[in-house]
Automatic annotation (TrEMBL), chain A:
This is C2 domain-containing protein 5. Residues 309-326 have a biased composition (Low complexity). Residues 249-340, 962-1002 are annotated as: Disordered. One of its GO terms (molecular function) is calcium-dependent phospholipid binding. It is found in: Cell membrane; Cell projection, Ruffle; Cytoplasm, Cell cortex; Cytoplasmic vesicle membrane. The lineage of its organism: Eukaryota, Metazoa, Chordata, Craniata, Vertebrata. SUPFAM superfamilies: C2 domain (Calcium/lipid-binding domain, CaLB).
From TrEMBL, chain B:
It comes from the Eukaryota. It comes from Oryzias sinensis (Chinese medaka). PANTHER family: ACIDIC FIBROBLAST GROWTH FACTOR INTRACELLULAR BINDING PROTEIN, ACIDIC FIBROBLAST GROWTH FACTOR INTRACELLULAR-BINDING PROTEIN. GO terms for molecular function: fibroblast growth factor binding. GO terms for biological process: platelet aggregation. This is Fibroblast growth factor (acidic) intracellular binding protein a. GO terms for cellular component: nucleus.
Length: 1131, 360
């Protein structure tokens, strides 16, 4: 299915002087896509050339459209010698491939050179004409939308959340190819950049295919990472959550919903197409995510060998069905498929894989399982057991899987009865959907029923060369193994799902630590049963006895058969169900959770020396250390949490980085006081030898300081639980004699530990043993953790618990600090101190630099640590500072959560409301915005909405191909309506006018806001124009001249920001949300005056409008006009 | 435990005006940190030296990267590297092009060449402006001079458009360019008492009245070069001192007007003597202006031929104003005097310059 890509080179400006003699440049441009290249004329002697070229047309497959970037090279013409390259621009044209997003890319792009940085700008126009024939057997997945945002994007509702999708692509790293010895650094960097662009395009396309297969039309919470494995290759991998998203367009809904296919409106052409597979094409795609028997390591030999949607059985069945039904798919898949072979080897390989290393480089050791929910879990013991168990269980599962796979495969031959059969199976499969993973971190109310706790798994692997890039089986198998483990942990916690799921790696030489973590949870059974998530639906409020403000805290596991020792109490909110004493999660605080006071950024840091080693010995040493590190980090977190008198952690992210001679552990989270959970006890200091007077005195001192700190923190974070009954308040200093002690030494077996834990009383305090040197360290670090200065708050979650009235000022920043350890013979403690200070100082300097924004909150503080070289510690932080209105915060902390919940729901509600009401009710709607939605209308509309949804789904099955037309019609309808009616998301007209004014208007540069959050305070996101996923390399051979490493990196980071902003602006957007810097790899060689840095960033480009604008302006047309005029005025 | 790298980059530029000023003033990072710590503003924030240092470094780096753009301020508005709010852009530019009056007084009228640049050390030592700052200011002058040199149209307007400066600053730069172009001598000891603002005012007067641009506003260098034709015409004023009749008539008329109005009590005789001297001086200046060398000495001549004599007689500023006004006007009544227009164009400027230059 071809498409036509058109590009036009308009002009350049601020070009560098390439001809010293004339102080001018003779520039021309090469435009390359795939293997086709066009050139513009040379524009002689100008630093601001006006090429105004013709439209260069590329006729290409949409598969290429997805994979390839448009590559624009600006060169200086030289009559006598070779033309000199000025720089390049890579344009990802993916955003043009879905109908809703941008229709044209147009704007000024920085011309980037990997050696010189930005060298001028170029104005480019890019369009795509996609021939919308909906071939369902294609290899492309144009139209599947990607979002980095880890919640349902604003302005959309999720009709169905299909589940986990993953994929990885590997290749040789150009930097390590033989040719790199003879080519210039520039050529090598460019080869690398281009390759990664290609790989991530391919990856996205493949994930898109999976989504289409599952019947979705979008990926939410898309997380893409690069593993630079050095000699052994380059891995690009991604995970995400497949969804069927529907656009909430207030204008379009009114008329389209009852009769004209809403499906086409909701999920555009591709999803239309994609919907079919759910019932028609193959069973496994839908059963995939739900299947209880997951694919096993190395079991499948296809490049996308494992995903929940593609377990190995699926492969067989689908290959069969493909053979009969879908010749094209079969064609492309067949080279990868080896029917008959792969099923058999899978099981034996599995059993060996975990035990020894059959050349795959796997080290059997080091699967560390952390059930991290309450008091330190019995880590070591579960560890080996579960591993064993897992092995045996999975074996049988595999057989089962094979059987079922065969069955469905044979059925695939018969088209007629197949369907009904498949449908049945689909349904049962959905019911069995026991372990779906979700990369989302925040959910609409009612979705999340109970939260079990954090589950995480790590594994240490030895990297080996990836021999055949088309079959990255080992990497797949590694991840498969880890996910399997996560799944079993979740099961152990009595949960059937993992939310807030993420994966990461840390690589040092040939050793690689793979980590995955998430939060075990129970999701709404209604959703599970129907396989449809009606996010707007509130029916669960009837079914679910527990109120949403505390329901998620209630334990999902069996009280008598607890997976780990915990102290349970009755929920302090509803008094009906049990809750744990502490709750750790990786997700954001649910919007309707009842909390007291404000949240607080909590960080545990740990640095451990490690002997230098090689190969397996090294890997073993590392994996032996891991459990202890996790344990220690956990203890630190717990202490710090208690010190702030809070009882829950959200957004927990534990990173363990490996270096040649040390391991770094960094756990960040946001502490909150959940009123449903019991009040935390104090921290108790105990000495081992009570007789000694000196020690006694010392301990008393420390104890006093701790108690003071607790009191101070309580005040600072305004933690005043509303109804603290006598029973709840544990005295901060419990009688030492009555307390059992928590021994912190590592030799202590965890079994003992758990027994001791069990004997803890209800109102327990944490006991720290002072004689333990580690504990002294701990206490020290506890007390040296400075709380933020007045007027500052910080958190690492999307929103700061306890602050709701944001004002619109925001400042996103990236900060990188590298510390060189001068003394090679540091002890663990000293190292810890250094590392802790590094993190603390970073925070302090943020507060200082941003002091002009007070009152202000640092949100979404994401730290990432690395050990780039021996004796170097690198910490990179990306966060956003947002101002808020101080006065209101104190007024209504209690009331706010409710209104907030409503406003959250509002997005989803809006559609349904307008579906069912005439324009007269719009007033009521707008009033309800302020007051909170009246309960009755709320429910009725939701009911209606859900029935409507059923209708929609039925429609989707009956409507087949002709969808192109229908979708067009609804779209145009949507336009006319929205332009006539009140506030609706931006119409094409506006975005176009915005864009044109920008690209041709002249000098002034439009402001692009950036934030790591999914929202911009005080504004409303009206359109997502595309995902931003960029990778840059910068290198210098004149480090000193560029101001040293700091100067080099400073300008590089600024350049990366500039390029992101330019791309967003060219797409017509005015902000980036969910921005993140995935990688920042810095390699320096000051002696050679050289330095190289790689940065990978991603985010969602959006168009937002100010909330006030929206209310004031009647129609979008007006907004468009005013925008254009103001833009014109500015130019 | 050395910090190898420390970088903080915001999506929107992060700068404090205080640090920017320190940077412009030529403070090294360490000195700037010292100043900031002593400033005491940071006390409330309990900032440690390392925090302030890191912040200062970040800002200095940002400014250094911006400096290239500041050299052509129009680029600052449409560059993509930094996201700078418009008001910040204006501040950055205005401050960057701001200069110290003490410093500019030293280089005023000097050739903006490498030779002068070498003397900046001495100027720095003399004025107390840091060398780095001197260099920036000097380079600014030079840059503005170079750009404006080849442009048509009004000087001030050109400067304002190309460097996005405020009106006041643009006028000052126009003066600097004008002085540099005509190489007016301002360094002599006798002229030391004049401030830059005095001279800038005079330059403004000259630009507005004596240049080509005052007549025709679309010529190259119109505001930089003096109107040759006008200077030629000035020669004709010689009649005022050479023609005995005219001189006497002129003198008489003026005396009639001035009688009893001057506060200073001069003997009639003395005033008469002065009159001859002054009149001769002013007309001589006018007639010699065709000579480039004498153009350079314009200000010295004014001081020597007019201001110093008056000052030695302890004239007040008011007296002088009165005197000059009548001196100018009385020429109008001379029936044989044919150069009224030139005379007005000449005396108008001389008058306002002398008013400005005459300090009590």
């Amino acid at each position: 299915m071809p498409g036509k890509l058109k590009a036009k080179i308009v002009a350049g400006r601020h070009l560098p002087v390439m001809d010293r003699a004339s102080d001018l440049t003779d520039a021309f441009v090469e435009v390359k896509f795939g293997n086709t290249t066009f050139k513009t004329d040379v524009y002689p002697k100008s630093l601001n050339p006006q090429w105004n070229s013709e439209w260069f047309k590329f006729e290409v497959d949409d598969e290429d459209l997805q994979d390839e970037p448009l590559q624009i090279t600006v060169l200086d013409h030289d009559t006598y010698s070779a033309n000199d390259a000025i720089g390049k621009v890579y344009i990802d044209i993916d955003p043009l491939l879905y109908s809703e997003a941008a229709s044209v890319i147009s704007g000024w792009f920085p011309i980037y050179d990997t050696i010189h940085g930005i060298r001028g700008e170029i104005n480019v126009l890019v369009k795509v004409e996609l021939f919308n024939d909906l071939n369902r057997f294609r290899q492309s997945s144009c139209g599947v939308k990607f979002f980095c945002t880890t919640s349902i994007p604003k302005g959309y509702r999720a009709a169905i959340v299909h589940g986990f999708v993953e994929e990885l692509v590997v290749n040789e790293d150009p930097e390590y190819q033989w040719i790199d010895r003879i080519r210039t650094p520039r050529a090598s960097n460019e080869a690398r950049q281009r390759l990664i662009f290609l790989m991530s395009g391919e990856l996205q396309r493949k994930i898109g295919l999976k989504v289409l297969e599952m019947g979705g039309n979008a990926v939410v919470g898309y997380l893409q990472c690069f593993d630079l494995e050095g000699e052994s290759g380059l891995v690009v991998r991604a995970i995400g959550t497949a969804c069927t998203l529907e656009k909430l367009s207030s204008g379009s809904g009114t008329h389209t919903h009852p009769n004209t296919a809403p499906a086409s409106n909701a999920c555009n052409s591709p999803s239309k197409d994609g919907k079919e597979p759910v019932f028609g094409e193959d069973l496994p795609s839908s059963s995939g995510p739900s299947t209880p028997f997951r694919a096993l390591p190395t079991s499948s030999s296809s490049p996308p060998p494992f995903s929940p949607s593609k377990p190995c059985s699926r492969q067989s069945s689908s290959s069969d069905t493909d053979l009969s039904l879908t010749p094209k798919t079969e064609m492309t898949q067949s080279p990868r498929l080896r029917p008959g072979i792969f099923l058999c080897p899978s099981s034996p390989i599995l059993s060996t894989d975990t035990l020894s290393l059959p050349g795959s480089g796997t080290l059997g050791c080091g699967h560390y399982s952390g059930l991290r929910a309450t008091t330190p879990p019995p880590l070591a013991s579960t560890h080996s057991d579960s591993a064993l168990l897992r092995k045996s269980v999975s074996f049988t599962e595999d057989l089962l899987l094979a059987a079922s796979g065969m069955g469905s495969g044979s059925m695939g031959k018969d088209a007629g009865p197949l369907k009904t059969l498949l449908r049945q199976q689909t349904q049962t499969a959905l019911e069995q959907r026991e372990f779906p993973f979700f990369t989302l971190t925040s959910f609409p109310s009612g979705f999340l029923l109970h939260v079990g706790g954090v589950v995480s798994a790590r594994s240490v692997k030895l990297l080996d060369r990836i021999h055949n890039p088309d079959e990255p089986e080992t990497r797949d198998a590694w991840w498969e193994e880890i996910r399997q483990e996560i799944k079993s942990h979740a099961k152990a916690l009595g949960c059937h799902a993992v939310v807030g799921y993420s994966e990461s790696t840390s690589i040092c030489e040939e050793v690689c630590i793979l980590s995955a973590s998430g939060t075990a949870a129970i999701l709404n059974p209604r959703y599970m049963r129907e396989g449809c998530l009606d996010l707007g639906g509130s029916d669960q409020r009837f079914e679910d006895p527990s109120p949403s403000s505390c329901g998620f805290c209630h334990i999902p596991y069996d009280e008598l058969n607890m997976p780990f020792p915990a102290q349970l109490t009755y929920c302090f909110h509803c008094r009906r169900q049990k809750v744990p004493d502490v709750l750790f999660t990786t997700i954001d605080l649910p919007s309707d959770a009842a909390i007291a006071g404000k949240g607080c950024f909590i960080q545990a840091r740990l640095c451990r020396l490690k002997k230098k080693g090689q190969g397996e010995a090294n890997a073993t040493a590392i994996s032996n250390q891991l459990p202890f590190m996790e344990y220690e980090l956990h203890t630190q977190l717990m202490n710090k949490l208690k010190l702030r008198s809070m009882n829950a952690l959200f957004g927990l992210r534990i990173q363990i980085s490996v270096g040649e001679n040390m391991l770094l552990g960094l756990a960040s989270a946001t502490g909150v006081y959940l009123t449903a959970l019991p009040a935390p006890g104090g921290i108790q200091i105990a000495g081992k030898t009570p007789g000694d007077l000196n020690t006694e005195q010392h301990i008393l001192n420390i104890q006093k300081r701790i108690n003071d700190t607790i009191a101070k923190n309580k005040e600072f974070y305004e933690v005043n639980p509303p109804d603290l009954t006598e029973e709840v308040v544990g005295s901060p200093i419990p009688e030492p004699r009555l307390r059992s002690r928590l021994f912190r030494s590592h030799s202590e077996s965890s079994d003992e530990l758990s027994e001791l834990d069990l004997s803890h009383g209800k109102k327990d305090a944490f006991v720290l043993e002072v004689d333990d040197t580690d504990a002294v360290e701990d206490i020290h670090s506890l007390l040296t953790d400075a709380s933020p200065p007045k007027g500052f708050y910080s958190c690492n979650t999307e929103t700061m618990p306890g602050i709701y009235n944001w004002t619109s000022a925001l400042q996103m920043f990236t900060s990188v600090r590298v510390l060189r350890l001068s003394n090679a013979n540091l002890s663990n403690q000293a190292l810890n101190k250094v590392f802790t200070d590094l993190c603390e100082n970073l925070l302090k300097s943020f507060y200082f630099k941003l002091r002009s924004m007070i009152p202000c909150c640092l949100s979404h503080l994401v730290f990432s640590v690395a050990v780039p070289e021996e004796d170097l510690i690198q910490v990179a932080v990306t966060a956003v500072a947002m101002t808020f209105d101080k006065d209101q915060t104190q007024e209504k902390p209690a009331e706010k959560p409710i209104t907030k919940g409503c406003s959250e729901a509002e997005d989803q509600l809006q559609f349904s409301l307008e579906l069912c009401t005439d324009s007269s009710s719009i007033n009521s709607q707008s009033s309800s915005k302020n007051s909170g939605v009246p309960e009755s209308s709320h429910l009725s509309t939701r009911d209606r909405c859900s029935t409507w949804l059923e209708l929609l789904r039925l429609k989707a099955h009956t409507i087949r191909r002709g969808s192109v037309k229908t979708s067009r019609r609804t779209q145009s309808l949507a336009h006319s309506v929205s332009s006539l009616e009140h506030s609706s998301p931006l119409t094409e007209g506006r975005s176009r006018s915005l864009r044109s004014s920008r690209s041709f208007g002249g000098s002034s540069v439009s402001v692009v806001k950036m934030t790591p959050l999914s929202f911009l305070p005080g504004t409303r996101i009206v359109k997502y124009v595309g995902i931003i996923n960029m990778f840059f390399i910068r290198e210098t051979t004149s480090l000193r001249e560029e101001g040293g490493v700091s100067g080099f990196l400073h300008s590089f980071v600024a350049e990366v920001f500039a390029m992101v902003r330019a791309h967003v602006a060219a797409l017509g957007g005015n902000a980036v949300v969910s921005y993140s810097m995935k990688d920042c790899v810095l390699m320096e060689n000051p002696n050679k005056n050289q330095c190289q840095c790689l940065i990978n960033v991603s985010g969602d480009a959006v168009i937002y409008i100010r909330e006030t604008d929206q209310e004031v302006t009647g129609s979008t047309a007006n907004i468009g006009l005013s925008c254009t005029s103001s833009a014109d005025g500015a130019t | 435990m050395a910090v190898e790298l420390d970088v903080f980059v915001g999506n929107t530029i992060i700068m404090s005006e205080e640090v920017y000023q320190l940077w412009l003033d030529g403070y090294t990072v360490n000195d700037a940190v010292k100043v900031r710590m002593e400033g005491g503003v940071l006390d409330e924030f309990d900032a440690k030296v390392d925090v302030v240092l890191s912040d200062t470094m970040d800002q200095y780096r940002t400014f250094q990267m911006c400096e290239r753009l500041l050299h052509s301020p129009t680029k600052l508005a449409n560059q993509l590297l930094f996201q700078i709010p418009p008001h910040r852009q204006a501040t950055l530019i205005e401050r960057y092009y701001a200069f110290d009056d003490v410093f500019v007084r030293e280089v005023l009228g000097k050739k903006l060449s490498k030779g002068t640049k070498k003397d900046l050390d001495d100027i720095s030592a003399k004025t107390g402006v840091m060398l780095k700052s001197c260099r920036r200011q000097f380079d600014n002058f030079k840059r503005v001079f170079k750009v404006v040199e080849e442009l048509k149209g009004p000087l001030v307007e050109n400067i304002r458009q190309h460097f996005l400066l405020s009106d006041k600053l643009a006028r000052d730069y126009a003066a600097i360019v004008f002085f540099a172009n005509n190489r007016f001598e301002t360094g002599k000891r006798k002229l030391q008492y004049l401030t830059f603002q005095d001279l800038a005012f005079c330059a403004g007067q000259l630009i507005n009245n004596w240049t080509v641009g005052a007549v025709d506003n679309m010529v190259e260098d119109m505001d930089v070069d003096l109107d040759k034709d006008f200077l030629q015409e000035l020669k004709e004023l010689k009649v005022l001192i050479t023609d005995k009749d005219l001189l006497d008539q002129h003198k008489r008329y003026k005396h009639l007007c001035l009688d009893g109005k001057l506060s200073t009590l001069f003997g009639k005789q003395r005033l008469l003597m002065r009159w001859r001297l002054i009149s001769r001086g002013l007309v001589n200046i006018a007639t010699k202006l065709t000579n480039t060398k004498d153009v350079r000495d314009f200000f010295i001549d004014l001081v020597e031929k007019f201001i110093e004599p008056c000052r030695s007689d302890h004239w007040t500023a008011a007296d002088m104003k009165l005197y000059l006004t009548h001196y100018t006007n009385s020429a109008h009544i001379l029936d044989t005097f044919k150069y009224q227009v030139v005379w007005d164009r000449y005396m108008g400027v001389i008058k306002s310059c002398i008013f400005k230059m005459y300090h009590d």
